[in-house]
Amino acid sequence: MGSDEHIVMLPYLAHGHLIPFLALAKQLQRRTGFTITIASTKLNIYSDHDLPPNTENTENLPPNKIVNLFHASLSLKDPFRCLVRDIIDQEGRLPLCIISDVFFGWAVEVATSVGTVNVTFTTSGAYGTMAYISLWLNLPHHSTDFDEFPLPGFPESHRFHRSQLHPFLRAADGADVWSTFMQSQISHCLESCGWLCNSVVEIEPFGLQLLKKYLKLPVWTIYEHPSSSSRSTIRDEGEERGSSVKALDDFVRTILLQTFLFDG
């Protein structure tokens, strides 16, 4: 693999999202030698969106203001597009891909507009991601008075309970501020060329099966235990690696092929 490739990453503004993105960036850089750019925000960028001063992530936000941060993040689309175009101008070539958070579905359009491909990264496991996106896209609890309900994408025998839902999701009706954001961004993510999932196939075979079937897209599992980073540096190159490392290599090969076909 050529080490002159460039990947741009766009994590969501929360530590629980940023940490997996940083781990993925380290894996990719170690395995490929690619340049990795992680886009983030300047302090105070959200002062015009009814958010407290010095708000750049969810760390110090009260729960009733988190949705403001979600909607405020939509204003990052044009600045992010400018960043990617600056990279293209400086390097004289397109980034290999844009890897964006599931909450930044608008990055799919940015990738298309500059001529590269987008990959969605869900920082949660496969089963949880599958339930989360299906709940928001379908709001099945809103169309029944029963506490238990089936969920599209899951076997008919599976039931979810209203009490398991976050209050914001439980109250969602499709027209509220949470629904308008989540449904739009998740729908855009379904147009990615594939998804990366923070999981391991040996742990979640069923969840991954459901997620792949629902998305109708490639899904690569890339979870790496923190302690494995130091061990991996002393292993022989020919030694058998874990499924996540193999999936990461498969992901890179697939994106290289996608980019080649896209350019062609």
From TrEMBL:
SUPFAM superfamilies: UDP-Glycosyltransferase/glycogen phosphorylase. The keyword Transferase applies. Keywords: Glycosyltransferase, Transferase. One of its GO terms (molecular function) is UDP-glucosyltransferase activity. It comes from the Eukaryota. Belongs to the UDP-glycosyltransferase family. This is Uncharacterized protein. It comes from Carpinus fangiana.
